[in-house]
Amino acid sequence: MNLKPIPILAALVLSAQLPAEAGEGPAYPGGYRLWTHVKSMAIHPGHALADPFLGIHHIYANPAALEGYRSGRFPDGSVIVFDQLQLVNADDASTEGERVLVGIMVKDRKRYAGTGGWGFQGWAGNSHDQTLVSDGGAACYDCHTAQAGRDYVFSTWRD
Q: ∠ CA(128), CA(131), CA(132), 5° rounding?
């Protein structure tokens, strides 16, 4: 069989589709900013989730998660990334500051059966190894149960 080499860019994009799994939870989602941007929002002081989520948030979805946003049911392999940055208010504008954390949801019904089929993890700032979730994602899941009817996902797809 004569196989042609995959161009390097295509190989990089394909390898960035799903994070490598490591230890008990999902691993850092390399290349997520190349995925589909789902939405952005800002949480200001006074919001119920300001502690600890004060800032600007960008939500990204890999191709499987994008299918889930469109259908309402997320297939295994779906990955959603929550990129949180400091909220900087200056000159009547809100802009991004330093990265606060990167959060992730990975759908794997078998592996994460105890948390609605989703694995959760977060990384501090720009770190790829300083994790923030030490309870197996139970605290994340507890909050996401409010969205059980939407497969535990808060964000929605807008055409």
A: 140
The residues of the chain scoring below 70 in pLDDT are: 1-24
Write down the pLDDT at residue 24: 64
Tokens standing for 31? Answer: 């290349």
What is the domain-level CATH number for residue 108?
Answer: 3.50.70.20
So what's the pLDDT on residue 25? 79
- Beta strand ranges found along the chain (DSSP E): 21-22, 25-26, 36-43, 55-61, 79-90, 93-107, 118-124
Predicted TM-score (pTM) of this structure: 0.84
| Length of the chain as a residue count | 159
Residues of the domain holding 123: 36-150
d(CA 42, CA 59): 12
